[in-house]
From TrEMBL:
Record protein name field: Spore germination protein
GO cellular component: plasma membrane
Family to which the UniProt record says this protein belongs: Belongs to the GerABKA family.
Ranges of Basic and acidic residues composition bias in the record: 475-487
Main location: membrane
Protein's organism: Salipaludibacillus keqinensis
Length: 487
């Protein structure tokens, strides 16, 4: 910044005074006139009246350095830089300067209004910890440090957004996280050129490897325990001030179907539940498309016992299968959106009563068959088994392209769609790491905690995807001497 572009204190004060919440107060210190200025909406009035003003009255010398030593505050700073004064005032600091002087003492008095730590709402679990992140980044970092009280836990602070100036923290475990992953995350966040960052989801979309893909390539979570577990595996976490969710990466496609409470149950039960989730997702995507393809092109594949039931259910339907399928799918999406946007009590009523009433009325009016109604309802129910909200949205969207190709080319179209989908997934990466690992490239060692979860005693190494400098989590020989608690 050139001398001409430097912000002067008189110009800054003049601009601040255009806002009604700017307060300028004359005070006397050591018999000399000073002025105290701050934003009333950002500074804590109780701190000013109970701590700052009484301390200033006790100061006998009109010297900023003496005043700084007398004040019972840390993080005070003396500066003549107008940009520093502006930044601090807009973060809840008080400015104190001798009338007519450019040198200012900045005193922290930020008003802290944060909500209490509550239970997770999106990633709720029956057993396990019941704490969720809130909108204060310092509290969120504290929640992580409680679970990882080690000196290796490091944090890099960045500021993103020319207007919002959002504080962003990159958190990782030194000597466990791969430096390349940390540097990649840091570089991508530093390169963000956007005026306003309101939530971590902004950052998530801007640093993904392929922003054109409907598949999320980083996991966002509201659970501190999940973030701590991810850090111990060698991942990198990102927190944004004002956001109750954290971002972790690199990640894989399979990880989006692993709920964190899988680790609170025995490995047998957790493995079965994970397989059920994956099968449910496949059913949600393909069930309606297969119905349309079979009835439109491949009726010879229908068993004779089932054929009469289908004929009876469709004999009064005036529309082809694709029309009734799209009608029901769009109806389900409308009910979802209405339930999500309305108040909680009303939304639950709309979702349940609306589904029953509209579904029954559509069948009785001859707009759709009862068989398809059951299939669409089960598909919608199956899509709710995904533990990560963003991948659930992706599954909802994927059903429509498969419906279109099923209508155009039947089962051949569905297989073409599957091929295109697999090629897309194989080409995706997360922070440069293969997204479909351990399926492709195949890594047998990483199957221990992917589609199924093996006992903890068999998870002695961190995922090879992380390329961590310390791959060993514990000595397997010692663990084998004792049976695992869930074996």
């Amino acid at each position: 910044m050139s001398d001409k572009d430097k912000i002067t204190l008189p110009a800054l004060m003049e601009e601040f005074q255009e806002s009604n919440d700017f307060h300028l107060q004359p005070v006397k210190i050591g018999g000399q006139p000073f002025q105290l200025f701050y934003m009333t909406t950002l500074a804590d009035q109780s701190v000013i009246t109970k701590d700052i003003l009484p301390s200033l009255r006790q100061v006998l010398t009109p010297d900023l350095e003496d005043i700084q030593r007398e004040l019972p505050f840390i993080n005070t700073v003396i500066t003549t830089d107008g940009s520093v004064i502006e930044e601090n005032i807009l973060r809840g600091y008080l400015g104190l300067n001798h009338s007519g002087a450019d040198e200012c003492l900045m005193i922290p008095a930020k008003e802290e209004k944060i909500r209490d730590i509550t239970v997770p709402e999106v990633e709720f679990s029956v057993i396990g910890p019941k704490q969720a992140f809130i909108e204060d980044i310092q509290t969120n970092i504290q929640l992580i440090r409680r679970r990882l009280p080690v000196k290796e836990l490091k944090m890099i602070e960045l500021e993103v957004g020319s207007l919002s100036k959002a504080k962003v923290a990159i958190i990782y475990l030194k000597d466990i996280a791969n430096e390349e992953n940390v540097n990649t995350m840091k570089q991508r966040i530093s390169d963000i050129d956007f005026d306003h960052i309101d939530d971590s989801s902004y950052i998530n979309q801007m640093i993904e490897d392929n922003s054109m893909s409907p598949f999320p390539q980083l996991i966002d979570t509201e659970r501190p325990d999940r973030v701590a577990a991810s850090l111990s595996e060698g991942k990198v976490a990102v927190l944004v001030d004002g956001s109750p969710t954290a971002i972790t990466g690199p990640t894989t496609f399979i990880e989006f179907f692993s709920a964190f409470d899988d680790y609170f149950s025995s490995w047998h039960i957790s493995s079965v539940v994970r397989v059920i989730r994956l099968l449910s997702v496949a059913f949600s995507i393909f069930a309606t498309a297969i119905y349309v393809a079979v009835l439109t092109y491949h009726s010879q594949l229908i068993p004779k016992d089932l054929l009469s039931t289908l004929i009876q259910s469709r004999q009064a339907i005036p529309f082809p299968p694709i029309i009734e399928a799209l009608f029901l799918e769009l109806t389900i999406e409308l009910l979802r959106e209405a339930g999500a946007r309305l108040p909680t009590k009303v939304g639950q009523t709309i979702g349940i009563v609306g589904g029953i009433v509209i579904g029954t009325a559509a069948v009785e009016a001859g707009l759709t068959s009862n068989v398809l109604l059951i299939i669409v309802a089960l598909s919608a129910l199956a899509s709710f088994t995904t533990p990560i909200y963003r991948i659930g949205n992706t599954i909802r969207v994927l059903r429509f392209p498969f419906l279109i190709v099923a209508q155009l080319w039947g089962l051949i179209g569905i297989f073409i769609g599957i091929g295109v989908l697999l090629v897309h997934l194989i080409g995706l990466t997360s922070l440069g790491r293969p997204y479909l690992e351990p399926i492709f490239p195949p890594r047998v060692a990483d199957f221990k905690d992917s589609i199924i979860r093996l006992p903890f005693s068999m998870q002695s190494t961190r995922p090879s995807l992380m390329r961590t400098p310390r791959s060993k989590r514990f000595k397997k020989e010692e663990a084998e001497k004792k049976k695992d608690i869930d074996e």
